[in-house]
Amino acid sequence: MELTWHGHSTWYVTVGDTDLLIDPFFDNPHTSLDPSDVDAPDYVLLTHGHADHIAHAGEFTDATIVGTPELTGFIEDEHGADDTIGMNLGGTIECGDAYVTMHQAQHTNGINTGYEHDAGVPAGYVISDTKPTQVSDEDSTAFYHAGDTSLMTEMRDVIGPYLEPDAVAVPCGDHFTMGPMQAAIAVDWVDADHAFPMHYDTFPPIEIDVQDFVNEVAGTGSDADVHVLDGDESVDLGEL
After folding, report:
1. Which helix (H) or strand (E) holds 100?
2. DSSP designation for 94
3. Is the residue at 235 inside a domain?
4. Cα dihedral 161→91→166→141 (10° resolution)
5. Residue 97 belongs to domain spanning
6. 65 within domain boundaries
7. pTM score, whole prediction
8. How many domains are contained in the chain?
């Protein structure tokens, strides 16, 4: 499984022959790319409806758009998308070679386009190369994109023990989401081997010293390796 961080919460994930783009927002200081520079994904996963997460969803309507039914309905109406999958919390769908499980995130979710639209509930995703079951599979690989969220016990009680992410991307910019301390606890709770900070340094309220996150993860006693990526940098989870 290959992961590429394009800044903020925008990730490009490749599982086998399937490419998935999460929360396309390329107007951020960590990427040099325009949406047209990105290889066309097969699927676009949207965590929630805020502008810094769906800003460029309309540039990828040739892909299958995945999100809550309210949010995919908005993308259909606003951008003419005709290939969408509306799903909801707890559901798992098969997306090519990937299995995508939607899980809750604690956040808000209005869409402001001059008037408010309901985008359903905010979410995160666990993307895996095998279907999640109660039987642990050491050969499976899973990546948890936490979305915009606060710290929540679901990470410790459900996502960690049952969905078993090998890697987790957590927002750590504070103000609108978790800051470094709570994000580090999230990493410890999901018991991932690898952790990636996201949703920081995009605009002034979420500017942080990302080393604080690295230090906080170490302070929890977690064994996770923290990888602070440059914008547009890729990693192969199988090679870490």
Report:
1. strand 98-104
2. E
3. no
4. 120
5. 2-230
6. yes
7. 0.97
8. 1
